[in-house]
Specification:
Layout: E1 2-14, E2 20-26, E3 30-36, E4 55-61, E5 69-78, H1 81-84, H2 87-103, H3 111-124, H4 131-146, E6 168-171, E7 176-178, H5 180-183, E8 190-192, H6 194-207, H7 214-217, H8 226-244, H9 251-254
Parallel strand pairs: 3-5
Antiparallel strand pairs: 1-2, 1-4, 2-3, 4-5, 6-7, 6-8
Helix pairs in contact: 2-3, 2-4, 3-4, 4-8, 6-8
Length: 256
C-alpha cells in the first residue's frame, strides 16, 4: 500500500554505502521505519542522504505483513537550518524527536503529537525563541497526550493541598505531587522549588485555554522565566526517564 503524508525524520542510520534506514514521524500513520535504497546518491529521488529533522512530503510503501516499508520519494519543505545554527536550540530539537521515538509505538497515529512537534520545531527556528520554555511546553504536552503527566494540582497520595513552600515533592511512582505530610513515606521523589511550581502553574493555565499553540504559549506574553523553564524541564525529564526506564540520550545535552 502506498501512502503520501507530511513527515519529519526522527532517526537516520547508514545501511550501506548508498542506502539508509530511516524512521519518520508521519501525521496519519505515526512512526514508520523505512528502507531508503539509494538515498545517499546525489541523483536519488531524495537528492542525497536525508538528515534528522528534515520535514516534507513523504511517499512510502508499507507491506501488510508488518515488514519494513520502503521510501519511494521525499520532497523536503524545510531542513530547519535556522535552529541548526545554535547548539542549544538544536539539542532541544534532537531531544524532542528522541522523545517522540521513545514514547510512541510504531504505526500508531498521533496527529496531535505530530502538529505539536511541527510547531515546536518551527518556533525553535525563530530568532526570539525561548528555548527552555518551548522544550518545557513540548514535554508537558507530550506527557499529557500520552496520559502520563500525573497529578500536578493536589497531592497524589492523599488528595490534599500541596502548598507552595519548600517541601513540595514529585513522585513518578505515585504519579504526581506530594504534600509535606506524605512525602516522608516516599523513597522515590524529586524536590521542587518555588520557580518550578510557578512554571507548572503557568503551563497548566496556558493549556486550559482553547486553541493554545506553542507560539501563543511561549510568546513574550506567556513565556516562562529561565529559572521556571529550567526547573520544569528537569522535573519532566526526570518523570520521562522513570516512565521509560532509562534517561534519553539527549538529556545531558538539552536539559540544563
Amino acid at each position: 500500500m502506498r501512502h503520501r503524508q507530511p513527515a519529519i525524520c526522527i532517526r537516520a542510520i547508514d545501511y550501506s554505502e548508498t542506502s539508509q534506514v530511516l524512521r519518520f514521524f508521519t501525521r496519519d500513520t505515526g512512526v514508520v521505519p523505512l528502507l531508503a535504497k539509494g538515498s545517499k546518491r546525489p541523483r536519488s529521488s531524495t537528492g542525497g542522504a536525508l538528515d534528522l529533522l528534515c520535514e516534507g512530503q513523504l511517499v512510502f510503501s508499507q507491506p501488510p505483513s508488518g515488514a519494513m516499508g520502503a521510501l519511494i520519494e521525499f520532497t523536503e519543505t524545510t531542513s530547519h537550518m535556522a535552529l541548526r545554527s545554535d547548539a542549544r536550540r538544536l539539542n532541544a530539537a534532537l531531544y524532542m524527536i528522541e522523545l517522540i521515538g521513545a514514547m510512541l509505538a510504531e504505526a500508531d497515529p498521533h496527529p496531535e503529537a505530530f502538529d505539536l512537534l511541527h510547531n515546536a520545531l518551527e518556533r525553535l527556528g525563530e530568532g526570539d525563541a525561548p528555548t527552555g520554555a518551548v522544550l518545557a511546553y513540548f514535554q508537558w504536552r507530550m506527557l499529557r497526550h500520552s496520559g502520563l503527566l500525573g497529578q500536578l494540582r493536589r497531592c497524589a497520595a492523599c488528595g490534599g493541598d500541596v502548598g507552595r513552600g519548600g517541601n513540595v515533592y514529585f513522585s513518578a511512582d505515585q504519579g504526581g505531587l506530594l504534600c509535606p505530610a506524605c512525602e516522608g513515606a516516599c523513597v522515590e521523589k524529586f524536590r521542587l522549588n518555588a520557580a518550578t511550581l510557578t512554571g507548572l502553574a503557568t503551563l497548566a493555565a496556558a493549556q486550559g485555554r482553547a486553541r493554545t499553540t506553542i507560539k501563543d504559549t511561549m510568546g513574550t506574553k506567556e513565556t516562562l522565566t529561565d529559572n521556571q523553564a529550567t526547573g520544569v524541564n528537569r522535573l519532566l525529564d526526570y518523570h520521562i526517564a522513570y516512565q521509560l526506564g532509562k534517561p534519553l540520550k539527549m538529556t545531558r545535552h538539552a536539559i540544563r
